[in-house]
Write a structure and sequence with these properties.
The protein is α/β, with parallel strands linked by helices and about 600 residues long. The chain folds into 4 domains: about 170 residues, Rossmann fold, CATH 3.40.50.300; about 60 residues, Helicase, Ruva Protein, domain 3 (Orthogonal Bundle), CATH 1.10.8; about 110 residues, Zinc Finger, Delta Prime, domain 3, CATH 1.20.272.10; about 90 residues, GMP Synthetase, Chain A, domain 3. The chain is built from 27 helices and 8 strands. It has a 5-stranded parallel β-sheet, with helices on one face. Strands 6-7-8 form a 3-stranded mixed β-sheet. The protein is elongated.
Length: about 600
């Protein structure tokens, strides 16, 4: 006996077997139960989602010899003949090869005759949009008022090509793309019945290759089984399908977020070594960054992302350490690169340039933060800076006092280009460079005078993290996930949850070197840095900075709501309108 492909062997035979089309099967079953069965149906949707299978199931349910029922019995002669495609009263017509008006005229002649042995004569026309205009016109009258023993079922992937006069005479059912999780679940059921050993990760790759089509996914699975046999390894599936390994995408984004240009260029070399198409990898990286962006923006994105739970967990951990603004800028770079790759003769060079540009992307300082720093300078007593700030806000050129006539300018006089006339980002960068220079090369007297006493508590921890974040935002963001165990001039011990992304990133050689350099510049001496795994519920662990910020914000919101609720005007308004206090927004935030 010849081999039957999985797509035909496991074709749905009942409405309950349909995957991802519950809205269609439920409506058709209710129509059969209530006896409100239309004379013409139009099934639309992408390829391989169950349109023709649903037409056959509906035909069996209407002609089953055990009586019309929401589910066919699949054992009577009528059901078995329709399943095998040999029923004389159920005609399946290919609209792509029967496009002429003569074919429709022949169909109209057959409509007049009663069915030979079934309850109805059913015409199933697949790819109905391929019929010619004259063929549609010839079908109009018959479709509008067919004999009571005739039912029409049309299927198409392009409903916009069907004339509106045909659409108005049919009940239309739109079939959806099948979600990835449901495709994986159906594939798991099939491979278990076929006694095939394959992991969920490999099935996810197969389902993703099917792109929402069950038939395409089963065809891909057939190809995988032909290559691997009954024992399927993940590496074989990756090699056969030519898909980009998601671990490579995770490593690429980790290198970009860590601003590691060498590792980023190494990713491009590995893509070339594995034989992946450069533009395909760029597209996969765009999709990966899109997933990170959505997770960062909305948090719980199960209904927005077509990912498995394991993939969602790893992406969520990486998204926590990536600023939202940087993700948007990275996506803009990759989208521009993808458009340029279509015409480029050197796709690897284009990808390398994009990765280097992303890894060296300068951090953006928010305008609110710059204004806050200017406000602190003004409150510190610098009248000239305050006047310059006011003039700058008014759009005027700041005027600085010149030296008095006859008096030589002092050595520390202001430079020829005033600091306040520069763009805010340039002023902030120069200010940070001056602070870094003064902190990295202090005089012995100053070191002795300003060196604080060693403290073995976490009091210096927020200042140290802020200091690191000012120069290396990526490193500072990772430190925010850690709990200070010992903070002193001799020892800096930081605890992280076991297996966290922040801990694995800080154990990198470049990150270790950068952290030691920042600790040497912040503390009077060079402390020993220890990164420690913390088991869940470890009593020695203090809350990290992110947890403290979250707790402070919750406490602040609770205080605001308590204050607003106790206000007489608010209480009176709630009593008058019978409402409830839903949200409290501070005035300064407004």
């Amino acid at each position: 006996m010849s081999y039957l492909v999985l797509a035909r062997k496991w074709r749905p035979q009942t409405f309950s077997d349909l995957t991802g089309q519950e809205h269609v099967s439920q409506t058709l079953q209710n129509a059969i139960d209530s006896g409100r069965i239309a004379h013409a149906f139009l099934f639309t949707g992408a390829r391989g989602v169950g349109k023709t299978s649903s037409a056959r199931i509906l035909a069996k349910a209407l002609t089953c010899e055990q009586g019309m029922s929401p589910e066919p019995c699949n054992v009577c002669p009528a059901c078995t003949e329709i399943t095998a495609g040999t029923a004389v009263d159920v005609l399946e017509i290919d609209g792509a090869s029967n496009t002429g008006v003569d074919d429709i005229r022949e169909l109209r002649e057959n409509v007049k005759y009663l069915p030979s042995r079934l309850r109805y004569k059913i015409f199933i026309i697949d790819e109905v949009h391929m019929l010619s205009t004259n063929a549609f016109n010839a079908l109009l009258k018959t479709l509008e008022e067919p004999p009571p023993h005739v039912k029409f079922i049309f299927a198409t992937t392009e409903p916009h090509k069907v004339p509106i006069t045909i659409l108005s005479r049919c009940q239309r059912f739109d079939f959806r793309r099948i979600p990835l999780a449901k495709v994986v679940g159906r594939l798991r059921h099939i491979v278990d019945q076929e006694q095939i050993a394959i992991s969920d990760a490999a099935l996810t790759m197969v389902a993703r290759k099917g792109d929402g089509s069950m038939r395409d996914s089963l065809s891909v699975l057939d190809q995988v089984l032909a290559f691997c046999g009954d024992q399927v390894r993940d590496e074989d599936v990756t090699s056969l399908l030519g898909v980009v390994d998601r671990r490579l995408l995770m490593e690429a984004t980790a290198a970009i977020f860590a601003r590691d240009t060498r590792a980023s260029l190494g990713i491009a070399a590995r893509v070339d070594e594995f034989g992946y198409n450069m533009r395909q990898f760029c597209g996969e990286l765009i999709d990966h960054l899109r997933n990170l962006l959505i997770l960062k923006a909305v948090g719980d994105a199960r209904d927005l992302l077509d990912l498995s739970e394991a993939e969602m967990a790893s992406l969520r951990e990486q998204a926590e350490a990536a600023p939202l603004d940087d993700l948007q800028r990275h996506l803009a770079i990759l989208l521009r690169t993808d458009a340029e790759m279509a015409q480029a003769s050197f796709p690897r060079l284009m990808l390398e340039m994009a990765l280097v540009r992303m890894a060296t992307l300068a951090p953006v300082v928010p305008v609110d933060e710059l204004l806050e720093r200017l406000k602190k300078i003004e409150e510190g007593g610098s009248g000239g800076v305050a006047d310059a700030r006011a003039q700058w806000r008014a759009g005027q050129q700041p005027a600085f006092a010149s030296p008095m006539p006859g008096k030589a300018p002092e050595r520390h006089a202001a430079p020829s280009t005033p600091a306040s006339s520069m763009p805010p980002r340039q002023t902030e960068r120069q200010h940070a460079q001056q602070q870094t220079a003064s902190a990295s090369v202090p005089s012995p007297a100053r070191r002795e005078a300003s060196a604080p006493e060693p403290r073995r508590t976490g009091d210096d921890w927020p200042d140290f993290v802020a200091f690191v974040k000012g120069s290396k935002p990526r490193l500072g963001s990772l430190l925010e996930h850690g709990s200070p165990l010992t903070v002193s001039t001799e020892r800096l011990e930081i605890g992280f949850p076991e297996g966290s992304f922040a801990l694995s990133s800080l154990k990198d050689g470049d990150a270790q070197a950068a952290l030691k350099d920042m600790a040497r510049r912040f503390f009077p001496a060079e402390p020993t840095i220890v990164l420690k795994n913390l088991a869940p519920g470890d009593a020695a662990a203090q809350p990290n900075l992110l947890e403290k910020k979250r707790a402070d914000e919750e406490r602040r919101q609770a205080d605001l709501k308590r204050t607003a609720t106790s206000h007489p005007a608010v209480s009176a308004a709630l009593d008058v309108f019978g409402g409830a206090l839903a949200e409290v927004v501070p005035i300064d935030r407004k």
